[in-house]
Prior knowledge:
- This protein is mainly alpha-helical and 142 residues long.
- It has one domain (9-137).
- The chain is 61% helix and 7% strand.
- The chain has a two-stranded antiparallel ribbon.
- The mean pLDDT is 91.
Amino acid sequence: MDINKPAGFGIRLLASIIDVFILILTSSFIFYIFSGKLSIDWTNGVAWQLMYTLYLTVIPVLWGGYVIGKRICGIKVKRMDNQNVTLPNMIMREIVGYYLISLITLGLSVVVSVFMIIFREDKRGIHDIIGGTYIATVKQGE
């Protein structure tokens, strides 16, 4: 299990911010087209959380470990054997390792994961360990 160039907390946070920004803009535009109302109030509910979790779970499987924010930032999700992620990896990572555990621990696992990503040499959080994944920095053209 050789981890090649793990991505640190800062670049991972930036990629997440880009993803949220792009998804909210796109979803709000679609919502506006169908309803005629311009609002982001719906992002406070279950629909947003479900959509965002599904996006983070499915798109990396279809797009070789990338979501939009990660692609822009030059990082991607990889399995510990450096292969592309599979749906079971991403379900364990996002749904179990991130979403369900953060609900059970009332968010404490997210704080612990931040410190793990900052201080661990392999830059893996709880969700990465559960999913058998890490976030790799990729070279231009990879």
